[in-house]
Description:
Layout: H1 3-27, H2 30-36, E1 42-46, H3 47-57, E2 62-66, H4 72-83, E3 88-91, H5 95-109, E4 113-117, H6 121-129, H7 131-136, E5 140-146, H8 166-174, E6 176-179, H9 186-197, E7 205-211, E8 218-223, H10 243-253, E9 257-261, H11 269-279, E10 282-285, E11 300-303, H12 310-318, E12 321-325, E13 345-350, H13 353-356, E14 362-366, H14 369-382, H15 393-413, E15 417-420, E16 425-428, H16 430-443, E17 447-450, H17 454-462, E18 471-473, H18 482-486, E19 499-504, H19 505-510, H20 514-520, E20 525-531, H21 536-546, H22 560-565, E21 570-574, H23 579-591, E22 595-601, H24 624-634
Parallel strand pairs: 2-3, 2-4, 4-5, 5-7, 6-7, 9-10, 9-12, 10-11, 12-13, 13-14, 17-18, 17-19, 19-20, 20-22, 21-22
Antiparallel strand pairs: 1-8, 15-16
Helix pairs in contact: 1-2, 1-4, 5-6, 10-14, 11-14, 12-15, 16-17, 16-23
Amino acid sequence: MSNTIAETTSENLVRQRSQRAQAIVSAGGVDAALESGALSHRADVTLSEALILGLVRQDVRTFISVLGHGSTDVGEVLRVYEDAGLVRTVGVRNEIEASHAAMALRWVTDEKAAVVTSIGPGALQAMAGSIAPACDGVGVWYLFGDETTQDEGPNMQQIPKHEQHLYLKLCETMGKAYCLHTPESVSTALRRGLNTVDHPHRAGPFYLLLPMNTQPAMLLNFNIEELPVGAPPPLGSAADDGAYGKAADALLAAKRVVVKVGGGARNAGEELSDFLDLTDAVAVTSPVVSGVIPHDHPRNMTVGGSKGSLSGNYTMDEADLLVAVGTRFVCQSDCSRTGYPKAKQVININTDVESATHYGRTIALVGDAGPTLRRLIVELRNRGQSKTNDESNWFSACRAKRAEWDQFKQKRYETPCLFDEMWGEEVLTQPSTVKLATDWARSNDAVTFFDAGDPQANGFQIVEDDRLGRTFTETGASYMGFAVSSLLATGLASKPFYGLAISGDGSFTMNPQILIDGVEHGARGCILLLDNRRMAAISGLQVAQYGVDHATSDQVEVDYIAWARSIKGVQALDGGRSTESLLAALDQAKDHDGLSLIHVPVYHGPNPLGGMGVFGRWNVGNWCKETQSLRHDIGI
Length: 636
């Protein structure tokens, strides 16, 4: 083909793509354009365009990308569609950052996004980041470049092994995946992806692998109606084979009921409140559902687990019946299966059979949390009995422990500064800093993200959310750098919000490119950088287990304020050494129309007032033998 003919063909393709995109924009969507006739039901399109058309039909309009040679054709479609105003391409500097930002956008606003990468290292980085939405149940699309299908020889950046579909095998290990080896299968691939990212109970990442030579392949007279729409329906309440009656009998007979609230109960706050009152139960919440019942609810014992609270762990230790609602029993959430040593019966409400039958002596109710709780409440009320009693021994004991926990926290807030040997002066503690910052965020209607490590662990013990959506704590993968990367979502959301990322120095340096990408894409938020020049959560664990820390700190002085100030558009602030100076810095950050970074030196050391403490068990290090022995003694 001569250059002139090739250029003409390319120009025609661009013009036709542009016309399709403009028709969709004018009509208000793919379906509306098809119905009005503005968009032909059949068209000659490349696989790349069919894919992007299919994602747009599913309301995916944001594509966060690090484009490379493995994704140039997809990138060209995005260019034309973006020129028409149909999609937004967000070029960033790191695939892990892209993954975190896409997850945060979906988690906070429910707006869908796709992460687009090249082949090889870029795809692997994005896949590493995808462990966060996989663990926390958030739907994100991943479009990865892949090796060509004709096997003409090794492609650069493919896995150096003479075997087909190796990246597909890796992705299938992480979650659901599909390779578009055959362009005509694009509709099936999109349906499987839709069922994954829009799953009503356990969404997650979907990996679509795009061989470099099939991306530009033409689909002649392609039927656009083949592109799938419609998310799978929710499961509804659990079926009744007598299980509701058995559960009601067990609840009425129990003396000390605890309800563990997991991510699957995010939309069941009203039902949970009614259920707690009706059964004289108390709740222990997971960090991912902070605010599902208000912090000041009299039956909320706050978080429990290996990094729980005095009140949360007390109720777990003493309960004789556990009601588990939408929880996966991650090791830290149930103290490596030792969290309920006195429980004689379990009622487990979950949409996943494996999770619903995790414990022995379980009455499994496999269904959605809200509808199932409503049916169980009806079953209890039909019996004409109620255990509601604000003066019961169980409720009184739990309330006393909650008051003890509140006093424990208050004592730390009243000592906001301690002398730190490394800093050589008094600096703020993490409890006082996190308390002030989260109170400030709540009063300013800011969304708070916590990064992994001590900020996260102290954070979910401290936050006092009155509703869902104030705090996002990525505890599933506990991915360092998640919080700061999440601030990118503040500039991508159709309804922008202000974000506060509370991060340690270790997590921040995992993903510092947010300072550049945040300015580029209009992020509006603040990085509150708590600097103790170490991975304090691991240092503390090492000291607790072995009496000394090792290889979890450094002596390198970093001027984070100068670093942030070096990037035009970022406001760099010193949080100072007092609560007054920190509050002033937060107010100044909020007034800035863009991204700010506040540097706060924080205490690390043996003084117990410098942290929130640990009250649970965990199957790690030299605790394993004792924890495992207890688990088998408990036997559920």
